[in-house]
Amino acid sequence: MIRISSRYVEEVHDATSGEDLVPLLQAAIELEHATIPPYLCAYFSLRNGSGSAVGQIIRSIVVEEMLHLVIASNLMVSLGGSPSLSGPSFVPDYPGGLPMGIGEHLQVHLRKCSVAQVRDVFMAIEEPEHPITIPVATEDEGLAAPAFETIGAFYHALADKIRTLGDSAFVGNPAHQVVASRWFPDPEEMFAISDVRTAVQAIDVIIDQGEGTATNPFDGSGAPAHYYRFEEIVTGRRLVPRPGATPPYVYGGDRVVLDEQDVWDMDDDPKVARYRAGSLSRYRADQFNASYTRLLDSLHRSFNGHPEELDAAMGLMFELRLLSQQVLATPAEWADPSVTALKQTGLSFEYQPLDV
Length: 356
What we know:
CATH topology of the largest domain: Ferritin
Mean pLDDT: 89
Number of domains: 2
Distance between the termini: 39 Å
Largest sheet: 2 strands, antiparallel
CATH class of the largest domain: Mainly Alpha
Radius of gyration: 20 Å
Strand order of the largest sheet: 1-2
Number of helices: 10
Helix content: 40-55%
CATH superfamily of the largest domain: Ferritin, core subunit, four-helix bundle
Shape: globular
Strand content: under 5%
Structural class: mainly alpha
């Protein structure tokens, strides 16, 4: 996980009540969400989707990021907060930086899937505090370790502060907890948060799946943590144990092949306004954004007293997948007649206010 502004960790340390943690959790919710559109752009741009190893890797990470969003929202609810998951201010403007002053000069783009996007953006987002240098079976090369603090420090500080505050900080309505067992069936990952024990357990899920540990690249379920899963795409090999060797892991398993011919040539960092009004390109892009907006609105209601709304939100995720293929199959029709680039219409993930 990438570096964040140190003030967020300092504010966690300085908190004297659960109420003080609420705005910090809102920032964490915004950050967890901000990673999802770029990951989905890469996943949706694969013509064969989850049928490929690359698709399976990216989809698995998206699902876990959604779980982290649910956990952070439930944690905020348990402390008496009201998460905000909708509206234009909730949606990042891509390209740009991520919430919480993250990543120093990292610019996050909405682009089709490529090794460069995974290596330069996705791995930077998910970089653990102490990445493990793991050789590749064919090249025996590792990656240089970074020298900066990560959002993992924020979550560790949050867990420590919750232990200090004790169970009395949990003043939220238990009936407003979203326990989405239908979508996240593992009871070790999805459960109601009501006290110190469950809060710390939930935070550990986020840390474990995102970072692994300083000595083990695998999470508690045996899957590589996000950073190492993305590195499988970059190295082109699955991460597998190598008992008796040092280190006891290697990128030497099954091949992970990203064939550029199987990727839609999506317009980089798209905006709906770039497509000609009245064109099929503009219509498809608007449809996609309307569905994305309904998804966010439904998520917002889910964590503000209507947990049953989550089923509708997850249904909209499937709709978004179907619409993405219609968008990406449509050649871009530019509003500016001087633009002649041959690209497919892009997925812009813009909040689009809906008529009620």
